[in-house]
Amino acid sequence: MRIAIVYYSKTGNTKKVADLIAEGAKKIDNVDVKSMSIEEIDNEFLNEAKVVIFGSPTIAGTFAWQLKQWLDAAKNVSGKLGAVFATANYVGGGAEVAELSMIAEMLVKGMLVYSSGVAEGQPFIHYGAVCIKDGDDGQKERAKIFGERIARKAVELFN
Amino acid sequence: MRIAIVYYSKTGNTKKVADLIAEGAKKIDNVDVKSMSIEEIDNEFLNEAKVVIFGSPTIAGTFAWQLKQWLDAAKNVSGKLGAVFATANYVGGGAEVAELSMIAEMLVKGMLVYSSGVAEGQPFIHYGAVCIKDGDDGQKERAKIFGERIARKAVELFN
Amino acid sequence: MRIAIVYYSKTGNTKKVADLIAEGAKKIDNVDVKSMSIEEIDNEFLNEAKVVIFGSPTIAGTFAWQLKQWLDAAKNVSGKLGAVFATANYVGGGAEVAELSMIAEMLVKGMLVYSSGVAEGQPFIHYGAVCIKDGDDGQKERAKIFGERIARKAVELFN
Amino acid sequence: MRIAIVYYSKTGNTKKVADLIAEGAKKIDNVDVKSMSIEEIDNEFLNEAKVVIFGSPTIAGTFAWQLKQWLDAAKNVSGKLGAVFATANYVGGGAEVAELSMIAEMLVKGMLVYSSGVAEGQPFIHYGAVCIKDGDDGQKERAKIFGERIARKAVELFN
C-alpha cells in the first residue's frame, strides 16, 4: 500500500519533518512511502496512494497558500486517509491552527482524517505532528511515531 | 454494523435533525442505527457501534458545553468513524465553526473523521450536515443524505 | 476616518457584497469608505485607513489563497480595526470557517478584530457578514448593517 | 482603568499563568488588574473592567466546558477589549485551537479581540499567550509581556 507525504517547504524544515514521518511509516510492513514537495509531485504514485499526509510551515497563523493552491486543485485525494503535520517557529506560533485549517479543507475534499490523538497512548498527538523549526529530539521522535501510527491505521483500514 | 447518533438538544431542533440522519442511515443494508440524547445514552449500543455521529446546537458560536462535557469523559469512541452535524438559528450563525470544534475534539479522541465533502457529488456537505433551526426542505433532505453517506462509508470501511 | 474594504472576488459575488458593506458604512458621518480588489489596491488610502474589512469567497472550506498571499505580505494593517465577510455557495458551505481563518491571520498581523456578534441586537452577526452567493434580501440587508456597525465602532474607538 | 483576568484552572497551572499576565499588566500606569477564577468572580470589578483576558487549560483540544458555560451566560463583556491565554500539557497539545475557539465565542459576545501578533516585534504572540504546563522561563516571560501589551493597548484605546 502506498503512502504519499505531500508538503510545501520554505526553509527546509518542513521537508525534514516529512522525511522523519516517512522514516516512521516505513517501519510498517507492506507499505511503500514517498515524500514529495508540491513542486515535484509523482502523480502516478499519488493516484494510487491510499494515504496522503500533508505538511506545511505555519505562515501568519495558517498553512501556506502554496499548499492551499495545490490542494484546491487536487483531484485525486477523496476517499483516502489523510493526516497532517506542521512546523512553526515557536510554541504558540500557530501550528495547530494551521493543521486544523488543512483538516477543514481535507474534509471538504472527501478525505478520512485521522491523527491518533490520545487513542494510542503516549505520546498524544492532537491533530498531527508539530515541530518547532525542524524539531527538538522529542518532537522528531514524535514525528516518526506519527508516521508509524498513520501507516498502521492505513493497513488496518485498507488491507 | 451499529451506528450511534449522539446529540444534545436544547429546543428539540437538534433531536429532529438527528432523527433525519438516522432515517437516511437506515437506507443502507445491514446497519442498525440508534439516535440518542447524551441524557439517555445506551452504553451497550454505543460500545459496539463502529460509527458515532455527533450533533449539537450552536451556542454562542461553538458547540454546547454539555456535549463537550460528555465527550471529554467518553471512553469508547477511539478508532470509530466519526461525523458531525449542527443546528443554528440563522445562516452565518456559527454552525460550521461549531462543527469544526467538535471535529477537533473527535480527532483528539482518536476517531476517524469523515464528512463526504464534495467527493460524492451534490449536495456538497463540507464538515457535516447543517440545519437552520430544524431545517428547510433542502436542509432536511441533505441531513438524510448525510446519514446515508456516512453509513455507506462505514460499510465500505468496516465490513 | 478612512475605511478600506479589501476583497478577492472570483465570480463577482464577493465584490457585490463588498459594495453593500461599503454602502452601509457610508451611512455613518465622517467616514470615507473605499472598496478595492486585491488586484487594484489603493495603497495610499489603505495606509491611512483606520479600518480594514476583508472579504473572500469560500474555496474548499477556507478563504482564497490569493487573499492569503496578499495578507501574508501586507505591511500596513497592524493596530487597525479588522472585520471580515465571506460568500459561499450554500448554507453549511464553509463561510464561517473561512471567516475564522481570516480572523486568525488578522490577529497574527496585530489587528483588533470585531464582528458585533450579538452585542448590538438583531441581526446577530457571529464572525462577519455571510452571503450565500451574492445574498438573498435578508443577507444583503445584513451586509449593509454590518458595514454600518463596523464604521460606528471605528468612530467610537478612533475619533 | 480596570483589567479583569478570568480563568478556569484545573491543576493550578492556568491560575499561575493568569497571575503572570496580571504581573505584566500592572507595569502599565493607571491600570487596576484583578485575576479571578470563574468560581470567584468579582462582578462589580468585572462590570467596570474595559478589558477581559480569558484563560483556560486545553481539554481534549478545546477550552474547558466550565469556562464555556460561564462565558455563554456572561452578560457584561460586549464592547470590551478581549484577549486569551491557554495552557496545555505539551507542544502541539491544542492550546492554539483552544484559544481560537475562545476567540470565536468572544466575537459572538461582541468583544474587540487583540493578541498583538507580530505587530509589536519579538516575542510574537499569535492568538494569545501559551504555556506548556505552567510555562518554561521563556513562556513565563512571554506571559508577562502579553499582559503588558494588552494593558498598553487598552490604555491607547480607552483612555
UniProtKB/TrEMBL annotation, chains A, B, C, D:
What range(s) does the Flavodoxin-like domain occupy? 3-151
Q: Name one Pfam family in it.
A: Flavodoxin_1
Q: A single GO molecular function, which one?
A: electron transfer activity
At the top level of its lineage, which domain of life is listed?
Bacteria
What's in the GO CC field? membrane
Q: Read off the SUPFAM superfamilies from this record.
A: Flavoproteins
Q: Which InterPro entries match?
A: Flavodoxin/NO_synth, Flavodoxin_CS, Flavoprotein-like_sf
Database matches in PANTHER family: FLAVODOXIN-RELATED PROTEIN WRBA-RELATED, FLAVOPROTEIN-LIKE PROTEIN YCP4-RELATED
**This protein is called what?**
Flavodoxin
